[in-house]
Amino acid sequence: MALSTVWVLAEQRGGKPSPALGELLTAARARADAVDAVTWGAGAAALAALAGAHGARRLLDLGDLGDSLPGPCVAAALAAEIGAGRGPEALFVATSYDGRDVAARLSARLDRPVLTNVVGLSSDADGSLVSEHVVFGGSEVVRARFTGEGPGIYLIRPKSFVAEPVGGAAAELVGLALPDAGARDAARIVERHAEERSGPSLDEANVVVSGGRGLGSADNYSLVEQLARLLHGAPAASRAIVDAGWVPYSYQVGQTGKTVKPSVYIACGISGATQHLVGMKGAAHVVAINKDPEAPIFKLADLGIVGDVNAVLPKLIDALERRS
Q1: What torsion, rounded to 10 degrees, do the Cα atoms 219, 224, 228, 233 define?
Q2: Whole-angstrom Cα distance, residue 220 to residue 321?
Q3: Whole-number Å distance between alpha carbons of 163 and 25
């Protein structure tokens, strides 16, 4: 027995839909009779077409929030709809900065918990929605479900589901009232900064080249960046070198970083700790370069190169440059 209605939080980035939106709508469509999306910002009209193509019947639009933080405003609007009996049985939210803020504030307003780090969904014998979560560094999977009155709030890890459009008509665009968020809405956005990068974002890259402690020093990370650029991919990193300050946190792949699902993942000087594997094991093909032939990463790799990454990468880069 499917749920009657699931709502999906449809985030936008610079007027463009979040890459996770299609994944969330696909997951919701498989578990509910009806799916609606909730958004805010300038790109609602374009978003309606994407939402409809992935099975949403309505796009509930909060409009332009100005310099208000999304968390308090969106949580207040959702709580008002739920309190009036117009809410869903479940709310699917991507594990992002704004998504986590909305989920936490809505949890406080409704006095309902949040199920976090969801990587899978299924149904119990009685039709209840069951969520799957990786724990202990990804070595175990636990199952959970909501009990009691009120909607279930699920924070879903990106790349846990494959976006599958169904080619539907554009979702009906419906305005959603924006109530006063009270003192919670006192904070204001005073300035915005866009991350500068060339090439695809880590979330969307078809090729990811990731560096680890085996590089030896921060200066050698430039080899990872060069290889990624030649392959039209994105550079990434293990937690070890992020913690060491070699690269920003936004580069981190793993349980406490980003989850990626590229066609090719090249692990350079990464041993393959379980925490890291959680974030990249969905890659279609894995290439590992490590001087330790017993490194765990080789158990996952489709192609392994045993050698010093600082000797192997320059040769790969040189070969690619000769071909270009």
Answers
A1: -110
A2: 18
A3: 8
> Domains plus CATH for the chain?
3-185 (3.40.50.620), 207-323 (3.40.50.1220)
**What distance in Å separates the CA atoms of residue 117 and residue 255, rounded to the nearest whole number?**
9
Q: How far is CA 182 from CA 28, 65, 189, 259, in A?
A: 31, 15, 16, 35
Pairing of strands 303-306, 285-290: parallel
Average pLDDT over residues 127-152: 88
Q: Indicate the helix (H) or strand (E) that contains 123.
A: strand 114-123
Tokens encoding 93: 């939210």
What rounded mean pLDDT belongs to the chain? Answer: 92
* CB-based contact 130:122 (threshold 8 Å): yes
| Residue 184 pLDDT level (bands cut at 50, 70, 90) | low
Q: Answer whether residue 140 shows pLDDT above 80.
A: yes
Q: Locate 263 and state its tokens.
A: 């066609």
In the numeric block, which tokens belong to residue 200? 């695809």
Q: Which of 191, 35, 11 is nearest to 101 (CA)?
A: 11
- Are 252 and 239 in contact by the 8 Å Cβ rule? The answer is yes
Chain-centroid distance, C-alpha 216: 30
Q: What's CA 54's distance to the chain center, in Å?
A: 17
Residue 199 CB: number of other CB atoms within 10 A?
15
Both tokens assigned to 268? 């350079």
DSSP state, residue 68: B
3-class DSSP state of 88: coil
Instruction: State the Cα–Cα distance between residues 113 and 94, nearest whole angstrom.
Output: 16
Q: How many CB atoms lie within 10 A of CB 314?
A: 13
Residues 192, 197, 203, 206, Cα dihedral to 10°: 160
Return the sign of the alpha-carbon dihedral for residues 70, 72, 73, 77.
positive
Distance CA 11, CA 41 (A): 9
Residue type, 56: A
